[in-house]
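I am still getting used to C-alpha cells and would like to learn alongside you. To get us started, please write out a protein record for me. Start from the sequence, derive the C-alpha cells from it, and show both lines together. Once you have written the record down, we can walk along the chain together:
***
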Amino acid sequence: MPLISPTIELAREEGEQRGEQRGEQRGKQLGEQQLITRQLKRRLGEIEASLLAQVQTLDIEQLELLGEALLDFSTVADLAQWLSNE
C-alpha cells in the first residue's frame, strides 16, 4: 500500500468537508424551496410557472424572508410584487 503524504491527505479531507458542506447547504435550500412552494400553493392556489421558477432561484435567506412574507399575501399579485422587489 503506497504511503500518502500528509499534505495530500489533508487536502483530500478538506475537499471532502467542503463537498459535504455544499451538499448540506444544497439539501437545505431544496427543502426550503419545496416547503415555500407548497405553502404558496396552499395560500394562493395555482401559481404561474414563471413565478415558481423565480422562487427556485432564491437563496436560503431570501426563502426564509419569503416564508414570513407569504403569511401576508392574499393574491398571486402579492407574490409577484415581492419577487420584483428582491
Summary: The CA atoms of residues 8 and 14 lie 10 Å apart. The longest helix spans residues 6-44. The mean pLDDT is 89. The chain is about 80% helix and 0% strand.
